[in-house]
Amino acid sequence: MRLPLINLIKSVAKQEVVPRYHQALQHRKLDGSICTEADLCTQSVLSTTLLSLKHCPILGEEMSTEEQLAIWQSHDDYLWCIDPIDGTSNFANGIDYFAISVALLYQGIPVLGVVYNPITDEAYSAEQGGGAWCNDTPLTQKPRSKALHEAIASVDFKRLPKDLAQHLSIQPPYASQRNFGACALEWCHVAAGKFDVYLHGGQKLWDYAAGSLILKEAGGVFLTLNQEPFWHQHQPWQRSVIAAHDAHLFDQWLNWFKSHSF
User: Which of 20, 101, 137, 197 is most open to solvent, judged by the fewest CB atoms within 10 Å of its CB?
Assistant: First the structure.
């Protein structure tokens, strides 16, 4: 189902996203975040077309909180999870770091995921047990001996505990830090080795559902900030993450956290 899902998402992106790039009508949601007509139209089309691949409930970012909770609590085994545009602020401002993110969950665990950037035409994808891909290229672990102090980190500071954010800004254990404002793509770029380590203080289900599967299938390692298994049923709406491209770097990254009290 991975390739049909990629093709479906590419078709929707061509129809609903690309023509509206940098010129979509937009408004502010109650939480202060931006929503554009492209978000709404993309979610609407996906909510219909995804049923041709797997007929099950669909949960989207642009639904109301009440709708999301009702769908989550009432669904049985399978559930589609959609972020119609991850990185909406980038999309609205003409920054080409955004993506459509779609995951299929089984009993709360992602089993299929696609993250597609229609501007760069990069489709990251994974199916449980089937590896991870960027377009036609498998994302496989390569021998690496990079130390944490040489690493490029993707870190979202604004959602971290204040003392942790302050320490990282003054005395980071890594070489350099980036944050581009699209969680799903950030997961994928850790999987691809563009980022070595990753830290985020709080993501929504649709932010991490597809990307976390892609990183796992690429050989990456991750836990929550509380050092708990990442995929658990408790509080799926808001989840922190510590991650690394490979187990060697993850051990160093996690040991740094264990040696500090935040």
Answer: 137
